[in-house]
Amino acid sequence: MKHRGAYRPVVLTVAGSDSGGGAGIQADLKVFAALGVHGTSAVTCLTAQSPAGVAGVHAVPAAFVARQLETLTGELPPAAAKTGMLFNAAIIRTVAETFARHPGIPLVVDPVMIATSGARLLRPDAMRALQDRLLPLAALVTPNLDEAAALLGRPLQSVDDLRWAARGIHGRWGIPVLVKGGHLRDVPQATDVLWDGQEERVLRAPFVSGVSTHGTGCTYSAAIAAYLALGHSLHVSVEQAKRVITQAIRRSTRLGPDGRHEALLPG
Fold first, then answer.
1. Active-site amino acid positions
2. Which residues does the chain have with pLDDT short of 70?
């Protein structure tokens, strides 16, 4: 986008709407703004949710998801993109068809399956479409512990398991992988493993105690996409995004009249 001689790269999020503002496209757009890129969005689902949980999900028809993507890629072609909650097989096929036609757009796939509250955000029949159609197109896939376990069929309980999972996902789909270990127990630091098929990087940051937020995966993957759009390499983008999510957790703010909910504060 050009305005008064300045240029700002466009980043596209293809994800669900979080009516509580803590995750989904709302979180992604906050990150894009904080990092100086212009965010566009193709909404896949509407949710009725708050920080306490998801009360309902209404999927956008796949044909209208396609219309959003066609409109955006035609007039505001993104320098990078990310996916979040896709929910069903029809939407995943639609998204995959779009990015297969635009192989020059680096795509960060956050394989959203289950909300922090436990609500299912990916239908069981959509897993095959995710694996067969979308993952092979990814410049990076960013599963958390549960998502990596679902993709590989084995629970992960240690940093060595993260390293094994990163190699397993790369070996199966041939794509760079960031396995996030923020939910590992009995480890001193929040540890993630990046494996691109040639080089491993282990990213660590101190845990922030006394904070309970959701939307960390959305924020992390959005930051990676933003840095890719700004021209950074994959490794640098992931390392910078790790700093962003760590700082966002540290700066999390309390919400509501009694302050019992929290939200990340990127930037």
1. 180, 213, 215-218
2. 1-5, 115-119, 210, 212, 260-262, 267
What is the longest distance spanned by two Cα atoms in the chain? 53
d(CA 52, CA 189): 26
**DSSP-assigned letters across all residues of 118-150:** S-B-B-GGGHHHIIIIIGGG-SEE---HHHHHH
Domain ranges of the chain: 8-252
Tell me which fold the domain 8-252 belongs to.
UDP-N-acetylmuramoyl-L-alanine:D-glutamate ligase (3.40.1190)
Q: What's the pTM?
A: 0.94
Residue 155 per-residue DSSP state:
-
DSSP state of 238: H
Taking a C-beta distance cutoff of 8 angstroms, is the pair 238, 224 a contact? yes
